[in-house]
Amino acid sequence: MKVMSTEEIVNLLDANEDLYIIDVREDEEVAEGMIPGAVHIPLGQIAERADELDATKPYILVCRAGRRSESACGILEEKGFDVTNLEGGMLAYDGELEFK
């Protein structure tokens, strides 16, 4: 499984790279702020909502600390997706936040 540091994702965001980020945290966690442009799909819904995703795009998965997003990466990898886990999750992320 590929991993990315929070420093790497902040640099990519600062460079205006097209990123496909999925936040697998629960609603109350997401209310505290998300990485700009992220799509919210709670971990419990990843398997059944995988058909909403484009299998030709690389996805970066994020949660609070990196464990749930690691599980989500495993689920999507089994379905043939190109996924990367954000190491340390939102606890390690110190970039901009978006509130939805």
From TrEMBL:
Q: Which InterPro entries match?
A: GlpE_sulfurtransferase, Rhodanese-like_dom, Rhodanese-like_dom_sf
Can you give the residue ranges of the Rhodanese domain?
Answer: 15-99
The source's domain of life comes to Bacteria
Tell me what this protein is called: Rhodanese
Q: What is the lineage of its organism?
A: Bacteria, Bacillati, Bacillota, Bacilli, Bacillales
